[in-house]
Amino acid sequence: PLRSFLQRVIANHGDGNFDLYAFVFLLIPFIMYMAFGIHRHASSFGVSLTSVFFGQETLDLDTAVDFNMEIANVFGMMAVVALGLFLVPASKHGPIMKVFGWSHAMAIRLHIWAGRLIVICTIIHGGSYYYTWKYRLGEDFQTFLMPPRECWVGQEDFTPTCKNGEYFCDCYDLFLCFTGTIAELLLLLILITSTHWVRRKAYHVFLTCHLLVGPLFFFVIIIHYNSAILYMSPSILYYLATAIPPYLERRRAVGVQVLSVDVIGVTNKDLSITFEATRDTVKACR
Description:
By secondary structure, the protein is mostly helical. Helices cover about 70% and strands about 5% of the residues. It has helices spanning about 1-10, 20-45, 50-55, 60-85, 95-100, 105-135, 140-145, 150-155, 170-195, 195-200, 205-225, 230-250, 280-285; strands spanning about 255-265, 270-275. Strands 1-2 form a two-stranded antiparallel sheet. Strand 1 and strand 2 form a beta hairpin. Helix 2 (about 20-45) runs antiparallel to helix 4, helix 4 (about 60-85) runs parallel beside helix 12 (about 230-250) and helix 9 packs antiparallel against helix 11 (about 205-225). The longest helix has about 35 residues, at about 105-135. The chain starts with a helix and ends with a helix.
């Protein structure tokens, strides 16, 4: 019975339980990082999380703003690290898959779980900054979302007008809020188009969004947090190194190409498939 249980839970009858792998090797380390990070910052500020949560302790404005920003950055860093692992399971022809003997169709679950972690951490990161901006500092939502026109034209003697000007109220900080908001919107678009219903009913929408919005999201994240490129570059380079050679091979005019697939017959169980093949391929098949 124990062997059968382990086979079912861990190996998933031979294919590997990648939901379990994601929980053990991805979610647990990130939860531990989150817990220790929050505890470390709470200790440095002399804050008791339980007393703050239950309303037994009221923080002064300086401590509250700094503490909220540090907690938000913990989740932001978790999202950046997850981005560094995000594309590895999605690399269909990668050597890591071959080394571990993983099927791409099964290992993509790690990609999905990393994406969920990125979405959750990004929303908490941005939401914490917005909470600080709106409810701690009493600033306007419009300023958080869109920097003033003078910031866009680079007017050197311009200082944005804020109710609490001592807290991240200059053009640089406002652009951080702006790019972070854009990144969250792009991420939500990727999340919506990655749902099971869209993938099954409109796969071209899912694929197009991934190919167009995905790189744009990476670009905006790098603008928002420059050091993110240090975490994301290995994953991006790994994906490109494993995806470009097969793509170039498919572009070559050698081999077989499927032109159309049509359903025929009354029962809709028969298919008519039309191929286009080069002369060399036809000769090789004779």
